[in-house]
Amino acid sequence: MKHSLNREELIEQLKELAAQKLPTYLANHMGAMCYEPSMIDSFSTICQHCHRPLTYQAFHSDEEMFNSIIKEIKDLGYDASLEVICGSCALEAKEEAEFFDLPFTSEDDICEENAYHLFCFKTKSDKDYHQAITDMESLYDYQAVLAFLKGESYFEDSYDRYHSIMDEQDTIKRMTGIGIKENDSNEE
Ligand SMILES: [Zn+2]
């Protein structure tokens, strides 16, 4: 197994990847025009923090993707975990989370009945985990993190569209705490 990188080395890797433009043939790639979404399933689980029963809706294929992305991140030699938590625990975890960003909502809109993902990430040399709370559908954020850790300058989303790491630096920063401008320490 390739030795995983430490935080400083990851910042260097990000600099390198973020300097690479998406190849023109991929930038012009339109994606599947008649994308047919897979079936939405209802999942039952328990909040991994307070053990309250939770149900949520998600694409079945996405559920498998989340698990395989976390496994790949670990296989690359990083510490990562993904938990399903309820809205109340999401509000509590927010105190510690360095990244909290739910698309289309403000933090006040967290619904206590809903389910959220808590993503934790650190390199082998980091002491503490960087925590991020995302909604249940944001597979895309995780795909960006995986591509970056693999040293790939772009990735394909589940809609058959390509994205460059150059354009996803903010996503990577929110998810892993790793950004080129490490001196924005007054963000949170
Ligand atoms: Zn909970």
Topology:
Layout: H1 7-18, H2 24-27, E1 40-46, E2 53-59, H3 60-75, E3 79-86, H4 87-93, E4 99-100, E5 115-122, E6 130-134, H5 139-149, E7 154-156, E8 162-164, H6 169-176
Parallel strand pairs: 4-6
Antiparallel strand pairs: 1-2, 3-5, 5-6, 7-8
The structure holds zinc ion.
Written overview of the protein:
With 188 residues, this protein is of the alpha+beta class. It has one domain (7-15, 40-176). The chain has helices at 7-18, 24-27, 60-75, 87-93, 139-149, 169-176; strands at 40-46, 53-59, 79-86, 99-100, 115-122, 130-134, 154-156, 162-164. A four-stranded mixed beta sheet has the order 3-5-6-4. The protein has a two-stranded antiparallel ribbon with strand order 1-2. A two-stranded antiparallel sheet has the order 7-8. The longest helix has 16 residues, at 60-75. It is globular. The model has no long low-confidence stretch (mean pLDDT 85). The site of zinc ion (ZN) has 8 residues, from strand 3 and helix 4.
Question: In the residues, how many domains can be counted?
Answer: 1
Low-pLDDT windows of residues? none
Mean pLDDT over the full residue set: 85
Q: Could you say which overall geometry the principal axes of the C-alpha atoms support?
A: globular
The topology string of helices and strands comes to HHEEHEHEEEHEEH
**DSSP helix count?**
6
Structural class: alpha+beta
How many individual β-strands? 8
Q: Measured on Cα atoms, how large is the radius of gyration?
A: 17 Å
Strand order of the largest sheet: 3-5-6-4
What compounds sit in this structure?
zinc ion
Task: Please bin the fraction of helical residues.
Answer: 25-40%
Q: Termini separation (Å)?
A: 35 Å
Strand content: 15-25%
